């Protein structure tokens, strides 16, 4: 049996199981959302304020490790917050910035342990830029507590002979260097996922936060919870397919060498109507190397059977009919930069192109 047929049958079974008893989380009211964000950021900032300021490179490694752990706890809290629709896009950006900050703290920790002053400086410069992004996003969200404070930047200045003049991740250095870094207080996913950079007029940026429970994996792929990031199109509810249920399909993806080497995170969900009937399935994946391999489009569409398709809103991809044995009616697949996206309909009356437009429109596209 061809990979396409196996994948189609697996995804049908997987999503049927995943849809049963699975309800998308309800969004918070605006006031409740802002309160939870403020509380989460305040808790982490208080923890950062209690850290011992570093005095040398070794202390820098310890400080970076402790700060990264605090930010990770914050991301765990944010993963459980379901924002109102108007705030979902900014919250995604906020999580992405925190994820990038955690990665830079890990790099700083590594450099500090190796007494690599250049490495510490490089991480510091990147954190400085990320700090500015966080303040902007926090302002857009309207949560001052998440914009970062000067508490971290009060850390003791490192000796000039130890590190070159620069600002080291929330560590104040001589006044002759760049302004001290103010770290945003937000968490990235427990596993750092490379952010997707897409033209805003085409598709929204995608970052898949990992599930809070130990993630099921296929090969080296991390299975994420789509409902942490996305909502369904108007009139439909997005229900996440649990990691243990989606694992057979993820294993198929991991069995394609090019995809296994490129993809760092993948999530699967079901679009249900108001009666609970499954209308379509959605699969989103992110490639860590910046480019999603073309093999992605061949998971459910054979090359000779697929046709180019542009949705009414201008999203370009390919389309093919589902196989008779799978129960899938129509497939729409696209790759753009590091994003892989598949929407497969079960209802012959449903348009994969229209549902794709509705999905991205509902999520800030």
Quick summary of this structure?
The chain is of the alpha+beta class and 365 residues long.
**Rg calculated over all Cα atoms:** 22 Å
**Oligomer description:** single chain
Helix content: 25-40%
Number of strands: 9
Overall pLDDT: 78
Low-confidence stretches: 149-204, 209-219
The secondary-structure class comes to alpha+beta
* Element-level helix/strand string: HHHHHEEEHHEEEEEEH
Number of domains: 2
How does this model look, in words?
With 365 residues, this protein is of the alpha+beta class. The protein has eight helices and nine strands. It has helices at residues 3-19, 30-49, 57-79, 88-113, 117-141, 243-254, 257-262, 352-362; strands at 217-218, 221-224, 237-240, 263-272, 278-287, 307-310, 316-321, 330-336, 339-345. Helix 1 runs antiparallel to helix 6 (243-254) and helix 3 packs antiparallel against helix 4. Residues 149-204 and 209-219 have low confidence and may be disordered.
Layout of helices and strands, plus pairs?
Blueprint: H1 3-19, H2 30-49, H3 57-79, H4 88-113, H5 117-141, E1 217-218, E2 221-224, E3 237-240, H6 243-254, H7 257-262, E4 263-272, E5 278-287, E6 307-310, E7 316-321, E8 330-336, E9 339-345, H8 352-362
Parallel strand pairs: 2-4
Antiparallel strand pairs: 1-2, 3-4, 4-5, 5-9, 6-7, 7-8, 8-9
């Amino acid at each position: 049996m061809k990979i396409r047929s196996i994948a189609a049958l697996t995804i049908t079974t997987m999503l049927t199981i995943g849809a049963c008893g699975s309800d998308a989380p309800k969004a918070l009211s605006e006031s409740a959302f802002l309160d939870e964000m403020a509380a989460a950021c305040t808790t982490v900032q208080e923890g950062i304020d209690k850290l011992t300021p570093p005095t040398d490179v070794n202390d820098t490694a310890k400080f970076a490790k402790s700060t990264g752990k605090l930010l990770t706890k914050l991301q765990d809290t944010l993963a459980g917050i379901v924002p109102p629709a108007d705030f979902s896009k900014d919250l995604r950006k906020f999580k992405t910035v925190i994820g990038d900050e955690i990665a830079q703290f890990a790099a700083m920790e590594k450099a500090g342990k190796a007494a690599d002053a250049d490495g510490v400086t490089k991480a510091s410069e990147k954190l400085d830029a990320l700090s500015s992004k966080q303040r902007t996003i926090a302002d857009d969200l309207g949560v001052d507590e998440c914009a970062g404070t000067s508490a971290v930047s009060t850390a003791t200045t490192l000796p000039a002979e130890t590190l070159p003049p620069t600002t080291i991740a929330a560590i104040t250095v001589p006044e002759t260097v760049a302004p001290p870094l103010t770290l945003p207080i937000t968490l990235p996913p427990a596993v750092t996922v490379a952010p997707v950079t897409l033209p805003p007029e085409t598709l929204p940026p995608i970052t898949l936060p990992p599930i809070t429970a130990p993630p099921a994996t296929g090969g080296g792929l991390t299975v994420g919870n789509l409902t942490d990031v996305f909502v369904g199109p108007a009139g439909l509810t997005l229900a996440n397919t649990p990691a243990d249920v989606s694992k057979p399909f993820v294993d198929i993806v991991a069995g394609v060498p090019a995809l296994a080497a490129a993809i760092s995170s993948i999530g699967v969900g079901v679009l249900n109507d108001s009666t609970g009937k499954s209308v379509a399935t959605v699969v989103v994946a992110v490639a860590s190397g910046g480019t999603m391999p073309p093999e992605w489009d061949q998971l459910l569409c054979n090359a000779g059977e697929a046709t180019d398709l542009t949705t009414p809103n201008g999203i370009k991809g390919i389309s093919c009919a589902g196989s008779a044995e799978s129960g899938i009616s129509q497939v729409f697949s696209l790759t753009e930069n590091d994003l892989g996206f598949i929407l497969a309909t079960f209802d012959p009356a449903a348009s994969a192109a229209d549902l794709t437009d509705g999905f991205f429109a509902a999520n800030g596209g």
